Amino acid sequence: MEYLFDTHTHSDYSHDGVPPLETAVLAAVNKGMKYLAVTDHCDKDCAVLPGLDWVRQIDLVSRKREMTALKRKYADRIVLADGLEYGYAPEADALYLQVEKEYPSDYVINSVHVVEGVDIYMREFFDARTKKQAYTAYLEAVRASVDAPYGYDAIGHLGYIARKATYPDKRLLYEDYADLVDEILKAVVEKGKALEINTASKGTKCDLYHDPTIIKRYKSLGGELVTIGSDAHDPSRFCDDFENAAAVLVSCGFRYAFVYENHVPKAVALDK
Ligand SMILES: [Zn+2]
Ligand SMILES: [Zn+2]
To answer: CATH classification of 5-269 is 1.10.357.10, yes or no?
Structure first.
């Protein structure tokens, strides 16, 4: 079946996104999609931590104005969710509390991009650490992000570190970090948050759904809320590889993925 929803996409309100917001919405409509969450980067982590001010900050005022107008304009064609992807750092908690108050959204992904003050997009993070050190520090940051005091909905791209790592074997294997991964998954379940299956690293095959041990573990710990997101920075990747991601979820015992409107999860059948 075709999957016609995407919970993780970027527009040019993100420092690294391509399409103007309306172009993204039109692309989704033309593809026949029923739901699109545009989750632009809100990187307050980079605003508060030293050395990361090269990351352009999002213009939340203009974006809110345009998003509100587009929701209205396309209401009969698509559910457009006003989403944001927060870059987690404990130092930015107060700023995100302020953002959620001033710019209420439909859906927030809480993602770890910065670990021990370094953007893990950068090679230097890996050069300075063994794989064990790097992955442990990353997972500890994700564990802390689950306890963030603001109202997010899903934990973004668990395992993202493997996308950029420079080690010969990049895989984040459950058995190597079982205690820490269990702590994360238990906290996600306990707090009623969702685990995101992110398809952006399909080429590396180093993610949750190419080795679904972690997804199965989440399920066995009581996890029900899962989202699927392409993390597309260009509309050509909307819903990319969702068939495979959905098939893996079904094989792990999930019958539904979820999309969010006004922070309320709505079930989408995976196996009809
Ligand atoms: Zn991200
Ligand atoms: Zn993203």
So the answer is: no
Ligand nearest to the CA of 231: 2
Judged by its nearest atom, the ligand closest to the C-alpha of residue 164 is: 1
pLDDT at position 272 is 61
Distance 253 CA to ligand 2 centre (A): 26
pLDDT at residue 1 in the model? 66
Compute the distance from residue 124 Cα to the ligand 1 centre, in Å: 19
| CA 111 to ligand 2 centroid distance, Å | 8
160 alpha carbon to ligand 1 midpoint, in Å? 8
User: What is the Å distance from ligand 1's center to 156 Cα?
Assistant: 7
Span 168-187, average pLDDT: 96
- Taking the centre of ligand 2 as the mean of its atom positions, its distance from the CA of residue 8, in whole angstroms, is 6
Residues 48-53, mean pLDDT to the nearest whole number: 92
DSSP track, the chain? ----EEEEE--TTSTT--S-HHHHHHHHHHTT-SEEEEEEEE-HHHHHSTT-TTSPPP-HHHHHHHHHHHHHHTTTT-EEEEEEEEE--GGGHHHHHHHHHHS--SEEEEE--EETTEETTSHHHHHTS-HHHHHHHHHHHHHHHHT-SS---EE--TTTHHHH--SSS----GGGSHHHHHHHHHHHHHTTPEEEEE-TTTTTT-STTTSTHHHHHHHHTT---EEEE--BSSGGGTTTTHHHHHHHHHHTT--EEEEEETTEEEEEES--
The reply to whether the predicted model has a pTM over 0.90 is yes
Mean pLDDT of the chain: 96
Diameter over CA atoms, the chain: 52
